[in-house]
Amino acid sequence: xxxxxxxKLARVLVxxxxxLQAGQLFRINAPVAAAELVRAVYxxxxxxxxxxxxxxxxxxxxxxxxxxASEEQLRYLPPLLLxxxxxxxxxxxxxxxxxxxxxSGVDPRRAALAQQTRQPLLKTFLERAATGALHWxxxxxxxxxxxxDAEMSLSExxxxxxxxxxxxxxxxxAAWRAVSAxxxxxxxxxxxxxxxxxxxPGTDLTVGVAGRTWISADGTKNFPDGExxxxxxxxxxxxxxxxxxxxxxxxxxxxxxxxxxxxxxxMRATAxxxxxxxNALLDMDAGARYLGEFAFGTNPEIQRFTRNTxxxxxxxxxxxxxxxxxxxxxxxxxxxGLHWDIVCDLRQGGQVYADGELIYRxxxxxx
Length: 367
Prior knowledge:
Layout: H1 4-17, E1 25-31, H2 35-47, E2 51-57, H3 61-68, H4 71-74, H5 79-87, E3 90-95, H6 108-117, H7 119-131, E4 135-140, H8 144-149, H9 154-164, H10 172-190, E5 195-200, E6 203-208, E7 215-217, E8 222-223, E9 227-230, E10 238-242, E11 247-249, E12 252-254, E13 258-262, E14 265-270, H11 275-282, E15 291-297, H12 309-312, E16 318-324, E17 339-345, E18 351-354, E19 357-361, E20 364-365
Parallel strand pairs: 1-2, 1-3, 3-4, 4-8
Antiparallel strand pairs: 5-6, 5-18, 6-10, 7-9, 9-15, 10-13, 11-12, 13-14, 15-16, 16-17, 18-19, 19-20
Helix pairs in contact: 1-2, 5-7
């Protein structure tokens, strides 16, 4: 029996998150494991009058490519991919892994090279999104693999995923509009600030945000959502930060990450586990050791770590930093083939100061 929440999710994605209009070219990127949601979104998008371009992928292809491709093939970017990013009006990415560890055995340097090759795609994507020419959203369809990572049964994980998206409510769109209004007040609080200082166990980090734009993530880019973010001034980060949760890349967990910054750059990066992968990614290109994002997680429905960045970066009471590419609509200028979000929990003993004033303590805004 089909889960009615899947149909509800499709309606929210098409009409609220993406705001699809008749005549728009709409791409769906998804693995076949997400077929139930793909069909629901496809039907809803056609009903909205969009021209739908499904892009379905098979399990195992990326692993084959990263392990067997020659260096020439790893460095090759098909021109059609760039033309597609330049042509589409809207795109939805659905994550639905059947094996989240499938790429764990890939050489991190080869993976970094392939990601660096795709940097022009990311640059074009972000630039078009910043001007409003391209609408995008990413979401997750629950699978056994994601449930296992989160240490839940599939039914428990489905309840978690759909609950985080307010899909159990009679009118999820009204719920997200309330989130938007609430987060807009945080944007107003943070706008105009010049510097933020984060103090927590193992952390004393200052980043500049003068002249940068704060954005409320309210379900129109990620779904579920719940954060306010900006792009730090590129040469401003000073100090050190110890991240609370593992960061996951290509199915591999990097644990106990600590960054030391000087003039905005990660000068030293260490980890208890996965340090080789960590530094391979940071050495990907010139921008990978600089910050592209600083964000507060604000979703109170997400309170536990699940090994999935879509949810973990939204945990209410946390902050996250992204090394690599910044979003141009924040005013950020950093360019890289990498954009990697890493989460720091501030719910027990964390503080954030804005221009010297304490505004956030133990995971809550106090101003």
